[in-house]
Every structure is written in structure tokens, then in C-alpha cells.
Design brief:
The complex is a heterodimer. By secondary structure, chain A is an alpha/beta fold. The N and C termini of chain A lie far apart (34 Å). In chain A, helix 1 (3-13) crosses helix 2, helix 1 runs parallel beside helix 7 and helix 3 (48-58) packs parallel to helix 5. Chain A has eight helices and seven strands. Chain B has one domain: Thiamin diphosphate (ThDP)-binding fold, Pyr/PP domains (Rossmann fold), CATH 3.40.50.970. In chain B, strand 1 (38-42), helix 2 and strand 2 form a beta-alpha-beta unit. The chains are: A alpha/beta, B alpha/beta.
């Protein structure tokens, strides 16, 4: 399945969930969900899961969806343990697995496609973790994944994105996204 | 000569800081009133272990132990966006380990973060900048390089700097640091 098709399914199902895209999910998410309920993890690769954790702890009445990458998550793999320890019931952690660092030229990530992020999440203590490789299955299961108590991690087997932050730079600078979302949450916690 | 600071004084200073922060947030229109006052994001630090031990018994302050200081920085950003007060307690080695997220989150992202940084190895009879240990000696110059305001907690009277520097971080929309000179007791 393509990452763009996944993001469209997420956008349809998310409701008022806060979303944290990063790396190759960022350019597509900008077009698919151009709202002010998202903050892109940009400039500190690997931080999406922890940024999402902070949001989930601060906003317990909202669902938070992290749109992570496999290479990104490997950069702060310990965040799986931190998230599992904090047990944010409202956090859904989606890991787009394509086996490469697409943005920097598609070098294979350590371990390549054999990395099993769902198993890692379960071992770290996530109460729910699974892998999905077909868009129809994602469409069928996403509502349940969003409704269930988290934290949950879903490893998504995807192709490469059409765009990367290198081929499609731009978007609102991180500090402006921070203040924009903060202001929105002040009005609508 | 520097003196060790009792953990209870640090905890009281944190509570005062968070109470003031909550009042500011309420004045800004934040309606949520959770049971806790604020968050301490910790990557355990030998130097401040008595404070961490005392925090374990504190119900008013929530402690999140992170696996790395990089995580602590990103979590701090999420908490800030959601209107939750927090500080980070780390060791000097953790500062060195997390320079990229200090830059990306706190500086470029303009996220206010107060760091309490333990100067493990700081000698009683030497200024930290002249320490025999590079981890102690390099800390202030590194913060200077990144333009991070900092001060030393060198004795019990200095805990007044905790709320002061928290306010400074909010005013500057960026990182500030307090360096814990001797092991807390």
C-alpha cells in the first residue's frame, strides 16, 4: 500500500485527533490534512514518538496519532519503552515501514525489512501492536484501533512516498506550528 | 565554597514554580485543572538522585523517566503545546548527548525548557570552568555557544533561581539551564 493511501484513510477516520507526521509522511499529510491540529516533527529526526507522547499526556481527552517512519523510530527506539511505561491510553503509533531512509537517498535501514516493530513494541510493553500490509484491512480496523485503549503500535508495510522533505520542502516552520497548535488547544483542550 | 542543597528545598522550589506556572496558564485561558502541578522529565542523574528519590513520594509532581535526553526534549515540546508545565532533570553527559534536540526543539522550535543539569565530578575547590573533568569544564562553554542562559545552583539560597529561570524560559521562548554544583542531599 502507498503511504498516501494510508494517510487518506487516517485523515478520514481521525476526527479531532492530533497528528504528528515526520519525514516522508510530512509533505503528503500537508496536502491531505491541511489543518491546524497537526505538528510536524522536523529538525530533530526520531522525535515524533516522544513529541506525540508529550501531546498525549497533556491532552488526555484527545486522541494522538504519530505518523512515524521506520528509520526515524530506530533513531529513538528507546521511546518505545518510555511510551509503554507512561501508558498514554490515547496514543496510536503508526510506523510506516519501507525498509529505507527514503529522504536521504533510500539507503537501507539497519536490519532492512526484517525489523519487526510490532514485536519490539509488544516486548517494550505496548498493550497492543500489530502489522498491516493491505489498505482494506487498515480501513476495516482503524476505527477500532482509534477507539481502543492504547498505547497501540501498528507497523504499516508501505511503498515509498511520492514526495520527501527534500523533493518537496516547505510548510510552516516548526516554531510556528508549535504556537499555532498550542493556541488551538488553549481554546479547545 | 559550594554547598549541597537538600532535596526538600529543590522540591519546594519546583512546587512554587509550577503553582506560578499554573496561575499564568489560567490567566491565559487554560481551563484544565489536573490534580498534579507539573511534570519533571528525568533521565536519571546520580548528582540529583536524592531529589529524584523524594519526587517518587510526591503526588503533586508527575515524573516521567525517559530513556534519553532527546526524548525528554521532544516530550517537553508536546507538554508545552498542550499547556502543561514541565522541567527537565538531566546530567551534563545528557546535555552533550542531546545537543541536536536542544537545538531543534528548544532553540529552533522556541520551546521553553528549564534544565536542571547535574555537574557530576564538580570539584569543591575549583571553578567548574577550570575542572579537571571535561564533562564539568565544557558544560558552561557549550551552553554559551548555543546562547542558552545559565546559572549555578551552588547552595541552598540559590533555589530561588528555579522559579526565576522558569519564568526566563517562558519569556525567551527557549531553553535555560541551572547547573547543580554539588550532589543534592
Amino acid at each position: 500500500m502507498t503511504p498516501e493511501s494510508v494517510l487518506r484513510v487516517v485523515a478520514e477516520a481521525r476526527g479531532h485527533a492530533l497528528c504528528v507526521p515526520t519525514m516522508t509522511t510530512a509533505p503528503a499529510w500537508r496536502e491531505i490534512a491541511p489543518d491546524d491540529l497537526s505538528v510536524v516533527c522536523v529538525g530533530f529526526m526520531g522525535g515524533a514518538s516522544s513529541l506525540g507522547l508529550g501531546l498525549a499526556l497533556a491532552c488526555p481527552d484527545r486522541r494522538v496519532i504519530v505518523l512515524d517512519g521506520d528509520g526515524s523510530l530506530l533513531m529513538q527506539l528507546g521511546s518505545l519503552a518510555t511510551i509503554a511505561g507512561a501508558r498514554p491510553r490515547n496514543l496510536l503509533h503508526l510506523v510506516f515501514k519501507n525498509g529505507v531512509y527514503h529522504t536521504s537517498g533510500s539507503q537501507e535501514i539497519p536490519g532492512g525489512l526484517s525489523m519487526d516493530f510490532a514485536a519490539m513494541a509488544r516486548a517494550a510493553g505496548y498493550p497492543r501492536a500489530c502489522a498491516i500490509g493491505e489498505i482494506g484491512e487498515l480501513r476495516r480496523r482503524l476505527a477500532e484501533l482509534l477507539a481502543d485503549e492504547g498505547p497501540a503500535l501498528v507497523e504499516l508495510h508501505t511503498t515509498l512516498a511520492d514526495k520527501t522533505p527534500m523533493t518537496s520542502p516547505g510548510g510552516v516552520p516548526f516554531h510556528q506550528q508549535v504556537e499555532r497548535l498550542r493556541e488551538r488547544l488553549r481554546r479547545e483542550p | 565554597m559550594p554547598e549541597s542543597i537538600p532535596a526538600s528545598l529543590v522540591i519546594d522550589a519546583l512546587k512554587e514554580t509550577f503553582r506560578e506556572a499554573r496561575a499564568v496558564l489560567a490567566a491565559e485561558g487554560y481551563r484544565r485543572q489536573p490534580e498534579h502541578l507539573g511534570w519533571v522529565l528525568s533521565v536519571p542523574d546520580t548528582h540529583q538522585r536524592t531529589v529524584l528519590a523524594a519526587l517518587d513520594k510526591e503526588r503533586a509532581i508527575r515524573v516521567l523517566t525517559c530513556a534519553t535526553e532527546d526524548e525528554a526534549n521532544a516530550v517537553a515540546a508536546g507538554l508545552y503545546i498542550g499547556g502543561e508545565p514541565c522541567i527537565a532533570m538531566i546530567q551534563h553527559a545528557g546535555l552533550y548527548a542531546s545537543v541536536n534536540t536542544l537545538r531543534g526543539v528548544a532553540l529552533d522550535g522556541r520551546v521553553p525548557i528549564l534544565y536542571l543539569i547535574g555537574l557530576l565530578g564538580r570539584e569543591r575547590d575549583r571553578d567548574p570552568r577550570e575542572s579537571r573533568h571535561s564533562m564539568v569544564r565544557s558544560c558552561e562553554p557549550l551552553l554559551d555557544t548555543f546562547g542558552v542562559p545559565h546559572a549555578r545552583l551552588e547552595g541552598p539560597d540559590d533555589v530561588r533561581l528555579v522559579p526565576e529561570y522558569y519564568r526566563l524560559a517562558q519569556q525567551r521562548r527557549g531553553p535555560v539551564a541551572l547547573l547543580v554544583g554539588l550532589e543534592t542531599i
